[in-house]
Each structure stands twice: as structure tokens, then as C-alpha cells.
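Raw record, unedited: Histidine--tRNA ligase
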Amino acid sequence: MTEKTKLITPRLPRGFEDRSPGEIAAVGAMIDKIKAVYERYGFDPVETPLFEYTETLGKFLPDTDRPNAGVFSLQDDDEQWMSLRYDLTAPLARYFAENFETLPKPYRSYRQGYVFRNEKPGPGRFRQFLQFDADTVGAPGPEADAEMCMMMADVMDALGLAGKYVVRVNNRKVLDGVLEAAGVTSEEQKLTVLRAVDKLDKFGAEGVKLLLGAGRKDESGDFTKGAGLSDSQAAVVLDYVGGKPPADNEGVAELAAMQSLFDAAGYGPDRIKIDPSVVRGLEYYTGPVFEIELTFKVQNEKGQDVVFGSVGGGGRYDGLVSRFRREPVPATGFSIGVSRLANALKLTGNLGATEPAGPVVVLVMDKAETARYQAMVSELRQAGIRTEMFLGQTKNFGKQVAYADKRNAPAVIIEGSQEREQGILQVKDLIAGKQAAQAITDNAEWKAARPGQFEIKREDLVSAVKKLLSEQ
């Protein structure tokens, strides 16, 4: 490399993150528990690619030379626009429609994977994140929606969050009926009203009332413009928020049917409850909507106690598959935000985000004897023990042990010339050594004690290491 060659600065793009072995192992264990619940309910896995044709995604149609509003897009050799998926539901709709003739109906599946949003990143807001979805396509009744809610509750229990969550349920048709009764017709005003309802838990009925009218000023003086409803219009919405549903509404009947199923299956209101403030992306849903809310308190960036909030949700989306087929295709499902849920489990001590155990490391005390060390490594690997030979350039014993320690190795195997002549090996238990180190302060005493180190016969390598690992 010449002096003029400019080095590239290693930079992670904004809105993306690297993951350590500990985080990968912890999230993997969490996903295994979620899978077990899904499969107990009879759902099967399916995998779709990261890229879809942009028009297939539906929400972001190509209306510019480069369709990049919200999605990451590229053009292939056929001049077709493709985009990275922004969720796991739109690809499922495409998959079901494309394989309609061969798939069972209803079709019950789950999917996990990364999704991508071409949006401005911020605290806790990423441009790549992991989702875990389950969906039933082809079942029109509220029974399928109720099953989704019960499965969400069972997932939370399986993750050790019993008593710390509630699945909240509402229905798009109920909300549509309230808006109609209040005389709200414009799409913009509807959205503002629904956003106001969504703030019930945060601001209370008085705060919602302000947001339905002229607007609300918060403690900092920031003003949020309201929906501009008259007092009589706002009263209709507030009655609903207060627990008075619209009469003769199909959504109310569906919620009642779901409640009877929850009752029959033993899911009380401490786990699943009907809640009129649940809104969730209503441009997407056509019937029941639900979300998992974690109810324990955490501190926000201002040091204030706040409820952790939603870690996933979903609902009925009967119109999505019908974009690909003439006949109506009912569908319902939910999505778990894996990264956010992992953060919640970390806060409650249920994530188990400890660094995974590293490999046993066979030290290289003499380069000329590398073949002997390789033989030891092979014996241990064939016995199912995770093992590696030190491949660094240093001959220094202390530096090799320091490497093993950094790898979170449970033990190192040592064979110098003296051990080789005697047909023995030294095994250094790094776990016991760390524990003993806390009680030994004198360096000379440390060297003399050699805590955690013991001698074995060469032929006993596998059995001795197995015994050590079981004891650890």
C-alpha cells in the first residue's frame, strides 16, 4: 500500500446494527420458544425471498423513476423494479395467490426474517429489523381471529412474561361505525380521529377530547392540531371510548363471538381483553385488530416511568390477497417485533443474553508438534466437543491463554515437551481459574497455586474433558 492510498473508514450504515454471538444465541432461543407455540397450534413454516417485485408489495407502487419512498429498490436486467420486503405479510399474499391451486385452505403458516424500511432512522427505529409472523389465509370467521389472540397470549407465557402483558382486541368495523355515526367522512379527518382514540392510554379521556376538537398543547408547549369535530360529533366518539359501542354493528357481534371463545378456552381479561382504544394501521385491516402490550414499567429517556407498550400485533386483512385474484380471500394474522420483544425480555431478565460457551482451545507450545495438537483437536471434535487449535502467531503461553479467555473457552489443553515425554497433558479449567482468582491477590501465590489446572493421561483426554464440561 502506497502512502497516498486512502484507507476506508469502517462505518456501519445508520439504521442498521451488528449482532454479537450472545445476542444471536439469546434471540435464537427466544425464536425457538415462539416456533414451538406456533407449531403446537398446527402452523407450518414457509420462507419467501427478501426481494419482491415492487408492484407486488402493494403499499409502495412505482410512481417515480426510482420507487424508493419507504422501500429499498433496484431494477433488474428486465427493467423490472424489485424492492426489499418491508413486512412479511405482503410476500405471503403473493405466495398464497401464486400457489393457490396446491395449498390447503385454510392455509396456516409462520415466517421469520428481516424486513427493510427506507425511512429516517432514530432511537429504537431501524431500517432493518427482524419480524416473526403467523397467518391463517382462507378462514373468514372470528374463530380464526380469536385463535391468533390466544396464540399470542401463549407465546408471551412461553417467554416467561405471564402477568406482564395483555392482548388487547378491537374491530375495524366498530370504529367505522363510530366514525359514520359521528358524521366523519373525509379520510384525513378519519385518520386524525383514530390517532386521537389511539392516545387514550397516554392522555386519558380529557386528552382525547382535546385532540378530537381544536387540538392539544403538551407540557413543553408543543401543539398538536385536532380533528376539528363539533361537540356533538366528539361526544359520539367519547361515548364509544367510554365503553358504549354503536348499536347493530357487525364488528360488535364479531367481538362478542371472540369473547365467548376466550371464555370457553379459559383466557381471562388479565390475558386477553376487548379494548375500544386499539386502532392499529386501519388502512390495512378489515375486521378484528389486536396487539400485545407489555404492562410493566420502564424508564424513558427523561427518567420517567412509562409502560413498555406494544411488541406486536395484527388483525384481519381480507383485501390483500384479493389484489391477485378475482374472488375474495379472507386472511388474518399477527407479527411480533423480535428486536423490541428481545429488549423487553432483557429488561425482565428472561432473555438469557449471556455469552455462549466458547470452544476448548488446544494450545500450540511447539510448532514442530502441530500434528500432535491437531490429533487432539480431532479426537475432541469427533466426541462432539466444540474445540479449536490455537492458530495465532505467538508462542507465548500467557497470550494464548488470554486468547482462550477472550473466546470464553471453558478450558485449554497444554502439552509441552515435558508432558509429551511423560505421556500426560495439563488441563486448565478457565472457569474455576476465574473463580479462584477472586480470592488470590498475590501474584506469586497465583503462580504457585495454578488454580483450576490439573494433570491427566494423554489417553484420557476425551473422558477428562467431558467430565470437566459436565461439572461446569
